[in-house]
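Journal club side-thread
Mid-discussion, someone asked how the predicted structure for our own chain would compare to the paper's figures. Pasting it here so we can look after the session.
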Amino acid sequence: MHRLGLALAPLLLVACGSAPTPHGEVQSEAFSTRELIQSDSNRMASLAMRDNLNSLFLLMDKLYRRNPAEWKKTADSPEAAVEFVRIALREGLGWGPLGERRDVAALDLALKPEFQGDRVAAFIYATADSIITAHGGSTSFNLVQGVDAQHVYNAARNMEIAMWVLASRRKADGTPLLLSNEMSAAGRNLSFEREMGKVIGRLDLLASFTTEKYRRAVISYAQGVVAGPFLQFLPVK
C-alpha cells in the first residue's frame, strides 16, 4: 500500500499543478424597484448598456496608458480625465473640444488627423454618445421605452468602422492617431481589440434579440389561435 501511494504521488502533483486558474464568477445586481417596470428585453438592454459603457471606460484607461500625452490635455491625472467624460455622458453634456458635434459627427472629428484635443477622451466620449443615441438617448429602459433593432445594429457597424480607422489612419507625420493594439517583436497586446469586440458583440446580440422579440410575439399569437380549440376543457360526466 505504501508503494502504491508513492507511485500515485507524482500523478497527484501533476493533477494539482494543472488545476484550472480561477477567473471569477458571474455577478448579479441587488434587486431594485426600477426592475418592476422593466420587461426581460428592457432589462437585457439596460445590462448591455451598462457593460458597454464600462468596457469603453476600461478602453479609455488602456489608451491613456499607451498615450499619456493625451490625458494631460484634459486633466491633472488620467483618472480625473475619465471622470470628466463619465460626468459629461451621465449629464447629457457635450464635450468641449468637439464643439456642438454629437454621435457619429463627433466620432468623425475625433478621428481626423488634424484634431488637436485629447483624442482619447474625444474618441471614447463620441463612441459612447453614438451608442446611447442608437438606444434612443437612454441608458436604462422600462416598459414604455423600446429599442430600434436597426439603430443598434448600425451602432455595431460604426464601432467596426471606428476600429479600422483608428488602426489605419495616420497623422501628417506618419504616426498613428493613437497607440492601441501592439504587434511587434517585443510581444502582442490585442486587449483593445478584444474589449471593443465585446462591445460589438453585445450590440449585435441586442439587435438580434429585439428583432426576435417581435417575431416571437407574432408566432405566439398565431400558436394561441391555432391551438385554442384543442386547449378547451372536456366534460368529465
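Post-session note: The chain has a mean pLDDT of 80.
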